[in-house]
Amino acid sequence: MDCPVMDYISNNYYQQKEANDVIRKFVEKMTWKTDEVVLDLGCGPGDVSSNILYPLIKNKIKQLVCADKLHKFIEYAKISYENSHINFKILDIENANECSLYAHTFDKIFSFLCFHWVWNKMNALVNMKSMLRNNGEICIHYLLNNPNLEIYKKMDPEWQIYTKKTMQANMPVYSLEETKTIFEKAGFRVVSIETNKNKFTFQNIASIITFFTTIKAGYTLSSTLLNCSVNVLSNISAATACFIETRCTGSVDASSTSSTSSVPRTESVISSFVRIPETTTSLSISTKSSKVSSAIS
Q1: What does the pLDDT look like over 70-84, one tens digit per residue?
Q2: I need a labelling partner for 2 at 20 to 30 A (CA). Which of 45, 129, 151, 193 fits?
Q3: What pLDDT is recorded for position 193?
Q4: Model's pTM, two decimal places?
Q5: What's the domain range around 166?
Q6: Has residue 296 been placed in a domain?
Q7: What is the CATH number of the domain that holds 12?
């Protein structure tokens, strides 16, 4: 199996912990029927889907479909976790044609620490809504802000050229209010927002660098650059995570909306998986949807 996949799995403790916390908190708040079909979007190598999400919802569902755009993750997940109740698919949430194959298929959509990587969040939300059945619900957990962007800003120009693509991939950056507006424009009505602070620690700098290296499978940075990034982090302050739960009462098509070591703290910005900070702030948004007739630009 591809080494980066195994490295990712061995270093995603915090993703697992946060997913577990979010699922336990929001699953019981959702409205469940019998034999529901659920999508886990951005499932990665499938360990969180199989070991955390499925055990907590297995008595409520008929099928768990897990999707990711990275082929190497899905290949690993199929070999390791697929069974009669859990299957894995390659899917790009920003691709309307791919998502149309699952129109009105799912009762629930979950997504953990994935949505911040999505470039066109409006299109992604519209696609999600198109895949939901009537009275469907979604629960999304992602970083509101991205520490990588602050690192990039503070780097010397000679280093910035090596991370340009990574920074572009992590754009755009939205404020909390802008994020709320995007969900509303996609047809979701915000019900509640709550924030939580989480503390993360690393045994040493080496463990931080390993975490940094494996956290984004689509990009590779040199260890020298990673060391530079970790040093830069010490000049920044506190990261933010974001939980978003949405409830859907209708469908919508794509053309309309309705260290114990002293770990450095980082400032958060919308899109990075990389949570090097000692302390992060999480945000919860609950929403409901209604049909909206105005067009999405």
Answers
A1: 999 999 999 999 999
A2: 151
A3: 63
A4: 0.70
A5: 3-289
A6: no
A7: 3.40.50.150
